[in-house]
Automatic annotation (TrEMBL):
InterPro entries noted in UniProt: Ergot_Alk_Oxidoreductase, NAD(P)-bd_dom, NAD(P)-bd_dom_sf
Regions annotated as coiled coil: none
UniProt-recorded name of the protein: NAD(P)-binding protein
Organism: Dichotomopilus funicola
Domain NAD(P)-binding: 50-157
Record SUPFAM superfamilies: NAD(P)-binding Rossmann-fold domains
Organism taxonomic ancestry: Eukaryota, Fungi, Dikarya, Ascomycota, Pezizomycotina
Length: 325
């Protein structure tokens, strides 16, 4: 009876991965789903999982003892990168050590595009992580830890989410004077639906991919931010301006309004988004530097479903699109 442990089921990726893993599971598969706090999970969701024989428990990447307890006897463990920028490699080290102690055979991880810049060749592995764009840096370090662990592994490198453009970035446009201040410079990116990333993760957990393989998870087409902007505004009727700026111009404008450089200790209370300066800049840089141009078939290969296009995915966010007063 194979045992699979999926951590972080309270998040957007983890919850989808949990449901999809159960959907494609074999009759004798056993599952443990964990969250940092069960009280934060919808009661109906937890009850539904338990009704299907799932053990639901609390575990925390910062508490190795809690991880070792739920990992005992597991064939595979899946963990999801957190929002704790700079602290994620330490959290990963805790997960890996707990998995090894518990006798886990295989580990799965949600990484990010760009991590290959520090891992996909011997030359890349010698590269100073500080020379890699900001957002992949923690993922480069974590992938290195996984590869050095001696465990079998599966890694997915997700592109930036379509969902963030609709539900996150758009919330700053009114604050910016009815403008999207942008630094992608007209380059295209194959943004991916978070929903597809979650299903891929569930598929990797239950063994739909050979061990020691890495997949790039993309949407079905490469589009510009201007196309996303124009589409959302065509739906909402919002009148706004798309502004292309340099990284320095964008950083200066936001710093003058108090956006911090530190995601952990910064004060976001008077700002429209909780995104530090390096994070904000790097989202555009990853597109502008061409890291998200490639379209892959990984979603369909691993889940049997074609990836969602942004128009289809955005239907769930239409009520969030900005509108003129």
């Amino acid at each position: 009876m194979p045992k699979f442990v999926l951590t972080g089921v309270g998040g957007g990726i983890g919850g989808i991965a949990a449901d999809y893993a159960l959907e494609i599971a074999k009759p004798d598969d056993k599952f443990v789903f964990t969250s940092t706090s069960l009280s934060k999970l919808p009661a109906g969701k937890v009850d539904g999982w338990k009704a299907k024989g799932v053990e639901v428990a609390e575990a925390n990447y910062d508490d190795p003892a809690s991880l070792a307890k739920v990992f005992e006897g597991a064939d595979a463990v899946a963990f999801i990168s957190t929002w704790a920028l700079g602290q994620r490699p330490k959290q990963a080290a805790n997960v890996i050590e707990a998995a090894k102690t518990a006798g886990v055979k295989r580990i799965c991880y949600t990484s990010f595009i760009g991590a290959g810049l520090g891992n996909d060749s011997e030359e890349a592995r010698q590269r100073d992580v500080a020379t890699i764009p900001f957002l992949p840096q923690d993922h480069v370090k974590t992938e290195r830890l996984i590869r050095a662990s001696g465990l079998d592994w599966n890694i997915q490198r997700d592109y930036l989410y379509q969902d963030n453009c609709a539900a996150f970035f758009s919330q700053s446009w009114k604050y910016c004077g009815d403008r999207w201040l942008n630094n992608t410079h007209g380059k295209r990116g194959a943004y991916v639906a978070r929903e597809d990333c979650g299903r891929v993760f569930g598929a990797l957990l239950v063994g739909r991919a050979p061990p020691n393989t890495c997949y790039t998870i993309t949407g079905p087409e490469a589009v510009t931010d201007r196309e996303l902007f124009d589409y959302m505004n065509s739906v909402s009727g919002y009148k706004a301006e798309f502004v292309d700026w340099t990284d320095d111009e964008l950083a200066t404008w936001w710093r003058e309004r108090g956006l911090p450089d530190d995601a952990i200790n910064g004060d976001f209370s008077k700002l429209p988004m909780k995104l530090c300066i390096p994070d904000l800049l790097c989202c555009g840089q990853m597109v502008a530097e061409g890291h998200m141009e490639e379209v892959t078939d990984a979603v369909e290969k691993l889940t049997g479903r074609k990836p969602l296009g942004f128009k289809e995915n955005f239907t769930k966010y239409e009520q969030l699109f900005p509108r003129n007063d």
